[in-house]
Design a protein that fits this description.
alpha/beta, 7-stranded parallel beta sheet, 3-stranded mixed beta sheet
Amino acid sequence: MRILITGSTGFVGRNLLPQLIQANHDIFEITINTDISKELYGDNTRQFYFCDDNLNNLKNELDNFKPEVLIHLASYLTSSDHTDDMRKLINSNIFFICHVLDAVKESGLKWFINTGSFAEYYKGDGLLDPAYLYSATKTASRILVDYYSKAYKYNYTTIVPYTIYGGVDTRKKIIDLIFSSLENNEPVNLTLGNQVLDFIHLEDVTDFYITCLSNLDIIPNKTCFQLGTGIGHSIREITSIMELFTNKSANINWGARSYRPRDVMYAVANISKQDLLFSWKPKIQIEDGIKKYLEGRKIIIK
């Protein structure tokens, strides 16, 4: 399969692409750093350096490549709505996707696999109500994808990952902050930790993208998948599990940080669609996932 992918050097992309390469898919990356792509994937993919001066070349390249599927992972992620972040959010989450959609519109694309955010559902009820400016740009990008799909006749699905953990990311996630607190002399300042989140392991996330690729013929157009386990755990519960497995106490100042004005307090995925369509369920439950996380950091499980 000819696959065009954005965000190939990001957290999910770094773990998904090796599987796509191993499956002998023909991969075309749109990247802002070809050096990292070369380091990660060598000559196993085609790489296009994205910049404002190169947009006409992108269209020509894609007209020749003729991607069958576009997997869109690229995003600028922040909970801030400061002016400094505003331009980055618009450039990455709006302008970039517009440029890609325009470049691919006459290439014969069949499927667009979009990636959303659980923070698009402020109340955790599956109704679009973005909690942050970041998630507002993700919701806006859905409308752009929908417009281009109607105008240029391709199908699309949106995958909404919930709280991903596992692996190693350059950005510290909540589970990384909890882990670091186990050995810190200085306490980690967190909120009260009552947010109930759906923690899904990175291996399950990449497995679901692969599963979707293998089942595009039975996925209805415009389907949105909430990608989680369907089970919620508070941040305090996750902390207790890590303390139990390591026999260490987390050094956390609970309540030292205030909740954000629109913090998502409940985010648990409804996974019924993937179960109904192709009987997919995550394989890694939270206790096993945390054990894998700790073992990956050379921690002996108690």
